[in-house]
């Protein structure tokens, strides 16, 4: 279907800035082809004549009964390389995974649809900032570990449903403020990963799973109640010395931990 992409871009809406494509008018097939148009390895998604397969035959995609994409999970065995166009993600997709895929580029956080529940881009070379204030409204899990993200994190407007946050092993700085988190705070467990893998809603009382390890965060980690901090290991390997709650109680962080 080489002609499909050609037709899309040759007929782009000229009323849009720079003749950008109106993604809302495109089929799910066209959107997915645009999504991977700049990856290095597309053979997995093409037939012997180098035409794109129908998306129902693409590995890593899950479609609903209406043929709409509900999950995109290109990870591990599905090599990509290059970059993907996150703006072309179909609005019906609720679980996005581009992990261990050797991809790079910046992520347009404000362009992700509000129905995205799980978003995983760990173990790549993505860069730029992570803007927690404009994340999808229904986001439950955000996994950005082992990339090249930089800058500070603004915790003032965390998505209300956010229950999992992994930003470990990046180049992030600034301070950590988890005072909006009302649940127990812990490292990730098999329970967290099970809900992510099955694209399910976690129970309301499940601990907030997180990891901020191996960045350059500094200062005190602010929390609502020290009694809710099950362990300090999510904050290791930074320049943070204590977890401090609203009553001023302090819990030491040992940054020389393994």
UniProtKB/TrEMBL annotation:
Domain of life: Eukaryota
UniProt name for this protein: Uncharacterized protein
Protein source organism: Paramoeba aestuarina
Phylogenetic placement of the source organism: Eukaryota, Amoebozoa, Discosea, Flabellinia, Dactylopodida
